[in-house]
Amino acid sequence: MTFPRPRRSRFAALLVCAMTLGWLVAGCGAAEKSADTAASSSAATTTKITVFAAASLTEVFTEIGTEFMAANPTIEVVFNFAGSQDLAMQIEQGAPADVFASADVRNMERVAKFVGAQKVFAQNKLAIAVAPDNPQEISGLSDLARTDLKVVLAAPEVPAGKYAAEILAGAGVTVKPVSLENTVKGVVTKISLGEGDAGIVYVTDVSAADGAIDEVDIPEAQNVTATYPIASVTSSEHADAAQAFVDWVLADKGQQVLQKFGFLPPATR
Predict the structure, then answer these.
(1) Among 34, 205, 218, 244, which one is most buried in terms of CB atoms within 10 A?
(2) Which pLDDT score is estimated for 267?
(3) Which of 222, 203, 202, 226 lies closest to 105 in space, CA to CA?
(4) 94 in the Ramachandran plot: left (φ > 0), alpha (ψ -120 to 50) or beta?
(5) 135-163 confidence digits (pLDDT tens)
């Protein structure tokens, strides 16, 4: 006589599988929760600082910021690049800035009561920007007075515009610009697009344009030195992180990047 095989062992096996699956799901859920908690904790410990920097610092500060964040993973740096005069106005109006780097001393002094100790971190020179291969055959400042040229300058309130005015006045050259730009990068753009024949920009702007414009040197005797100060903003909620960035710019690692981009070191360090 044949008897049916008992089903108890099959039931037990199914029960073990179900329990194992439940443990796996629970384990995965716990792991996901742990990962979410770790990510949340990491985000919570990251400090974000906003650096207001002159437009002429766009390329070099972007690289400095990348290196700084790699060395300080708990600090995130966000940049606001614009004309120094506009940045100073924004700080006066209470914009949330942690660091201010200006292309001139005048605009830093303008916000003196809003910032801490000011330190000069770089210097710069100016040059005549022309189209590639200099099709208008511009050889010096006196050519900028030619009536057949479209000359573009930064506006007088912009540091680059102020420096350009000093250079032209010192050379006794009168220029009637077709456009006055709100940043020195605006001058670069106009020349590179063919909307202007020549302009006065920083030497570093020509290098940063990567072939979009060419340069005609301004002799040392006719040139001026642009001075760049930096300071932390006293209303910053992240004073330590802000000062850490300032210190990085002033230290050797920051200075090496600045000089790589063509900036001159401060006169005294």
Answers:
(1) 205
(2) 85
(3) 226
(4) left
(5) 999 999 999 999 999 999 999 999 999 99
Rounded to an integer, what distance in angstroms lies between the CA atom of residue 84 and that of residue 166? 18
CB-side exposure of 189: number of CA atoms within 13 Å? 11
Single-letter amino acid, residue 146: R
* Long-range contacts of the stretch 67-70 (C-beta < 8 A, 24+): 67/253, 67/257, 68/244, 68/245, 68/248, 68/254
Q: What is the pLDDT of residues 255-267, one digit of tens each?
A: 999 999 999 999 8
Residue 220, token pair as written in the block: 């040392």
Strand order from edge to edge, sheet including 99-101: 75-82, 47-54, 99-101, 226-232, 119-124
Do 101 and 52 meet the contact criterion of CB atoms below 8 Å apart?
A: yes
Closest among 211, 212, 186 to 201, alpha carbons compared: 186
Using DSSP's 3-state secondary structure scheme, residue 24 falls into helix
Which residue's structure tokens are 């515009």?
161
List all residues 6 or more positions away from 27 whose beta carbon is below 8 Å from its beta carbon: none
Q: What is the pTM of this model?
A: 0.83
Q: Give the side-chain half-sphere CA count within 13 A for 96.
A: 6
Closest C-alpha among 219, 196, 198 to residue 138: 198
Amino acid at 255: Q
Domains of the chain listed by start with CATH number: 46-123+227-260 (3.40.190.10), 126-217 (3.40.190.10)
